[in-house]
Amino acid sequence: MKTMHIFIGFVVIALVQIFVPSQMIREQEDVLKSGNSYRFKTMPIDPTDPFRGKYITLNYEMNSFTIADTSFVYGDKVRVYIEKDDMGFAKAVRLSKKSLEINKDYVVTRVTGNYKGVVSFELPFDRFYMEETKAKDAERAYTKVNRDSLKENVYAKVYVKEGRSVLQDVIIDGISIQDYVEK
Amino acid sequence: MSSKFNKELKTLVKDKVISPELADKIEQYYTTKDIGKPNKLFMIFGIFGALMVGSGIILMLAHNWDDFSRVTKTVLAFLPLLIGQFFVGFSILKNKSATWKEASGTFLFFAVGACIALISQIYNIPGDLGSYLLTWIVLCLPLVYLLRSNAVALLTVILSTYYAVEVGLWNYRSAQTPWLYVVFFLAIIPHYLLLLKKKISSNTVTIFNWMLPISITIALGAFVGSKGNLGFVMYITLFGLLYNVGRLSVLKELRTLRNGYLIIGSLGTVWSLIIFTFRWFWDDEYPKMFTYDIQELYIALVLFFVTVTVFGYTFWKKGIKGINLFQGAFIIFWMVYFFLSSVEILPVVLMNMLVFALGISAIKIGADKFNFGILNYGLLIISVLIICRFFDTGMSFVLRGILFVLVGIGFFMTNYIMLKKQQKIKKQLKDLQL
């Protein structure tokens, strides 16, 4: 009898153990399937700490918003409302702590500073996992692209839906960084 | 039964201490007694095997195979998880031995970690290491109680400590107080208490007796705020708590080496108090005194309250005679730090006296117990104190030299006297037997 109780308890835990990762997958898939795709210009990877383990760190050009409002302080959770420009690149249009009644996508992030009317933040999708053997080459590719000043050609492809965002790929020169590295 | 024991039996028979028949009887008794008990070696190998395979899977998945499609990766993520769950379910349902439960639990523990890690990789989920560890711990904590697994409990303690340090210290961009560590720690305690009750002198308990105080000592660092003014106060109180816990009657019977609380508490107390015997420390600390981080103050107060409760309990049970200075050192420190710190040189003098008294009391404990280790520990405390005073006092070399010689002679004398005393007692015992 007692064994049965423990077993039932375990089955519940086992289901939770399966459910939590599945839910993670479901949420991400949902954003990928029905979210809007944006291009975020990414600055060359943080040169001091480009590769922690098997992912690369991305620094985005969009990291601040000019707004004279001192109520934004370090650590605040904010919504960055975005829209696409002609090239399909994301552009920040509004910054707000509360939900706004406008028909635009937004990314949720935290304020990292507020100085002279410029509120800075860091976009959440800052790591891109790569196969470990390709990590070093990816770093070189970035340096090269940076040297050739092809900055415009480096961007992250991100799907956004209801504040959730999924980084799908990093594009260099029109192709995925994974393929670019192999080239 | 171990061959060493058999050998010992043979010697006893040879030396005519016991008869061969009795030796046979003893041997038989132990062979039958061991039947049905899980083989310890099996258990250890089982756990280690699961540990290696489990972490191996995590490492392999961390390679981040680009060539696999998202579906393949997802299947790979869930495969170890399902295998682990199958084995755990099987060992619960069939009421398998502890070996089975420990090994399968350990494997499942890592399988859960691998699964969420891989999904984070597939979708580039931004969450930092802290939130990943958090999910992992929460998903595995119930296994401790479902399987009564010590291995999973230990892994949880280690992972929780890692979580506390990661969130509170290493995550410099957004350091937060890892309150959940407290929850995880408290969640393990019932399992530990049960273990204490059942088999206090087992090696498993010894491992816990060390791991728990080590974990809490490391994790407390994550609760010290950015100003850190009260960090030392918090630590001295914690060491006081650990020492007092180590002196509780449940643990007091253990050999000192099996009692991590006592050793960590004692060493920690002495170490931190010695820092406060330096004058510059008070001079530097004092101006900042009354700008406490309010959270730190609360944590320190809670710690103080808990420690005083444990201390008071021992006091109430055993009276003043059952208590030594190490147990109460933190209270003296609190009084000096909060009430006397503004009085010129007084706190420094008091701290020096306190450490000196601790040394003397360790020597006394050692002498009473005929324990050379504790005796020399006390002498060591006093020597370190004297060496430290050389750094911030303008004593002449001659005086320093004389002090050193005196301490050295002290080492010789006390050890010699005790050795003599011990020999005398041994001789008396022998005479009595004859």
Identify the strand order in the major beta sheet of chain A: 4-1-11-12-13
Greatest interface: A-B, 36 and 35 residues
| Strand percentage of chain A | 35-45%
End-to-end C-alpha gap of chain A: 63 Å
Overall 3D form of chain B: flat
Instruction: Give the overall shape of chain A.
Output: globular
Q: Low-confidence spans of chain A: pLDDT under 50, at least 5 residues? A: 46-53
**What portion of residues of chain B is helical?**
over 70%
First and last CA, distance of chain B: 35 Å
Report the average pLDDT across residues of chain B.
83
Task: Quote the beta fraction of chain B.
Answer: under 5%
User: What is the total tally of β strands of chain B?
Assistant: 0
- Computed Rg of chain A: 20 Å
Please estimate the helix content of chain A. Answer: 25-40%
Element-level helix/strand string of chain A: HEEEEEEEEEEHEEEH
Structural class of chain B: mainly alpha
Number of strand elements of chain A? 13
What does this structure look like?
The complex is a heterodimer of chains A (183) and B (434). Chain A is globular. Chain A is 30% helix and 39% strand. Chain A is built from 3 helices and 13 strands. Chain A has a 5-stranded antiparallel sheet. A 5-stranded antiparallel sheet of chain A has the order 5-9-8-6-7, with no helix packed on it. Chain B starts with a helix and ends with a helix. In chain B, helix 10 (231-246) runs parallel beside helix 14. Chain B has 434 residues and is mostly helical. The chains are: A alpha+beta (183), B mainly alpha (434). The interface between A and B is large, with 36 and 35 residues.
